[in-house]
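This entry is passed on directly below:
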Amino acid sequence: MKNISKQSRWMLAIVLLLMSVSSCKDDEFFEQTNPPETPWLNVNEFERAVIGAYAALLTDYWGAPISSHNFVKIIGSDVTYWIPGEGGNMDSDAMYYRKTNQETGYASGFFSTSYSVINNVNVALDFIAQHNGDPFPNASQADKEHNLPRIEGELLFLRAVTYRSLAAIHLPWYKTEGGNDARILPLRTTFPSTGEEAASSKIGTVEEIWQQIVADLTKAKELLPETYMAGVHHPTYQHGRANKFAAAAMLARVHFQMGNWDEAMKELNFVIDQNGGQYDLSEDPIDAWNKDSPIRGREVIWYQLFSDPNDGGRNYLHYASINKSHYEAMGGGGPISTGGNNSVAPWNGFTWSYDALARVGWMVDPKNGDYTETEEAKRDKRYQQLYYRYEGYKGPLTPEEEALGIWEARFEDVTTPMVWANKYYRGNVGIETNVPLLRLAEMYLTRAIIRHRQGDVAGATADVNVVRVRAGLDPLSSVTEEDIHNERIKEMHQEGDRLDYLRALHLPIPPGDRDPSQPFSTIEYPYTEYAWSIPQREKDLNAGYTGL
């Protein structure tokens, strides 16, 4: 995040080191005669607590939990196809074929780093609570009114986002009708005060975990400002940080996934209709994805900030594994003939599934060998700006052919046209390009499907048409539920949305291009087969799992 100084990085490292093993049995640290003094002596220093939490969650290179968990969901969805044997050393087989009973480096490997974020947040929240909400009595009235509440709101927001990310990977899906009593994830809302407490964390029920997420986001929305105010807020708050609308958008996601649709609608209406002109769909789709400066696209509500030279965090994350370009892209990564450096991620083995391309109407009949681009695809700005078609491998290319960027040049077995995501690394300097995490288009499409299911077809049609018109398409006179599903695929492909969307609607998770006869090729509600195992090491070290 912005302006993370060496000192604040050092402080973050200490916290993460202390909790690098998610369960600890050493009481000596917790019972020192002269325990360490608080690292925060004023509000300005306390800003480092939330900056450190953002850094741990979002910009920890290949280890950022939120990107890792999205990566797992992208590969397991029906709209992604895995080129067999490709994709690097990434547990691709287990993730693609939904072998959730296995421990993998991605589904299970980021369990402890996620709890490091939570512990980092809890240290700071405990500090506020231990001082009865007034940790700096000598702070200015402006800081007490504007900065301390904001910092607390950001901390709660980040804890909720981390728990939601864990829940989407490890928990059975939330059942609106009840029965959410399984105990799977540790529920930590305070930093442990003794080794015994650390080694026996409470294992929360599915209900308790989701209700904690809702409570944290609700409080965060209450505390956070609607926008950055120069001269009032700390200058680091200006870019890449959560505000009231980010909390409301995340709360809308959570309520949608839990089946609390009336509550979701309240948040969606707030974000869409009451944002004071901060967010709209007035720009082209690419403008959300090509920013390598702190400036955001008009539709971007919250994003991973990689463009600040003072940060040191750069976009080395998993996006290169599901994207046409990789992080060394320059000039947008396009063909040399258009001013790019023809960037291609050498290990990316994940493309659009033919099933999805046929479903959204962008290829005529790819499952039966007709890979023709449709007129709809040619008119759709999303297809033209955010995705990239390679024709099949035809052998070694001449330098002139390679410069055109038309043919597959990496995988000899890919002999038919494929369409790749091309959203990431699209700025002039790919590695410094920010990544949207919450976009207004998603809010419109979520409101559309809720409206449709509640009988408001006209309202649903209006919302879908806002998204379609931005994409350069003609508005529809009336939408079906399938229309909404397909618009969402076109809009949200390779953003980690698809599995959560299907589960929120209690729809089957289809096989896509997988062999339908294989286990878990189709997963039905309540999706008990799609809950990744908790690392055995955590179970061995945490006495809270005893007897479960």
Observations:
- The chain is about 40% helix and 5% strand.
